Structures are given as C-alpha cells and as structure tokens.
Amino acid sequence: MSNYFFPEAYVENGLESGRSICFKGNDVYVAFAKNAGTGECVKTFVNTPFEKLVEYVDLEKACFTRDVIIVHSEEGGYYKGFLIEKGEKLYLLEASGSTIAVSKREGDAVEPHERVGYIITNKREVRVIKAPLKGILLAVIDLTWEKPEKVIMVFTGERPGEVVIGKSA
C-alpha cells in the first residue's frame, strides 16, 4: 500500500497561521513547522487551505494575486511542488452538481479533453468533466458551503516552475 500525500497550498505572505515555506534565495526553499522563526527569508509562503485559495484568485484575469506554491508530493525527505507566480495565466473550470468526483489530483498532467472527473446531477445523470487544455492541474477548490456542490479546478497551460523544498531540522 502506498502512502498518500495530501497536497498543500502555500501563499506568499498569506493570512493563515501554520506551517510555512521560507525562500532563502538561490532556489533554496525550506519548510518550517508552525510558528517557527523565518527571519532570514527573502519570501515567506504560509500554508493555506485550498478552500481559502479562491480568495487569492483574480477571477476576471484568471491569475493568482500573490505567488503560490502547490506542494504535490513528498520524496526522500523533500517536498516537491510548483511555484505559480503572481499574474501567471490560469485556466479555471467550475463544476456544479449533486455530487462531484474528481479523478485527478493536484500536480497531475492532463491532455485536452481528458476525463478529470464526474458530475452526478439531481436527476441522477452522470456527466463527464474534461480538461480544457494540455497542462497541469494545480488545485481542486471544493466550495463545501455551496449547494448544489461546487468545485473549481485550476489549471495552467505552461509548465510552472518546479521547486524542491527541504524540511527544517
């Protein structure tokens, strides 16, 4: 049985409290536990729930309003993620229905018209959700307070910058 890694979002100078990622310059990123000192950081990214990530999306321009790191896996004592810079073009796909099941996860590559999930309507019909472009699925934002159920999927068409994040001691 493989260990599942729950993807995480980190927003530059985010308002949430909790774990953070420190960018020290020269492509050096270090993850810190909650309330750890980050005094020597060039930039600090704060762990943010995916549901709050929508607050950092400009819906008209389809871009993040701050730099964001999506951590999608853990390998050999390091985290791997994507750095999406403020203003970088995103593609948003909204799905709404009685039940929504997403079959892809954050960090997965997708092809145009590839199946990324399903919607079950109130009439119990099954609809397929297809990727809008060739790219990477960055985030699945579940708007749990919405009825019917609503999910916003965030894609990027270009390969975002990959970052390797070390764990602090």
Describe this structure in words.
Helices cover 2% and strands 53% of the residues. The protein is elongated, with a radius of gyration of 17 Å. The chain is mainly β and 169 residues long. The strands form four sheets. Strands 1-4-2-3-16-8-7 form a seven-stranded mixed barrel. Strand 12 and strand 13 form a beta hairpin.
Brief overview:
With about 170 residues, the chain is mainly beta. The chain has one helix spanning about 50-55, and strands at about 10, 20-25, 30, 45-50, 55-60, 65, 70-75, 80-85, 90-95, 100, 110, 115-120, 125-130, 135-145, 150-155, 160-165.
The oligomeric status of these chains comes to single chain
Rg over CA atoms, rounded to whole Å, is 17 Å
SS-based class: mainly beta
pLDDT averaged over residues: 88
Which range does the strand content fall in?
over 45%
Q: Major β-sheet, in short?
A: 7 strands, mixed, barrel
Helical coverage, percent range = under 10%
Unreliable spans are none
Bulk shape? elongated
Distance between the termini: 28 Å
> Helical region count?
1
- Strand/helix succession: EEEEHEEEEEEEEEEEE
Count of distinct strands: 16
Which strands sit side by side, in order, in the main sheet?
1-4-2-3-16-8-7
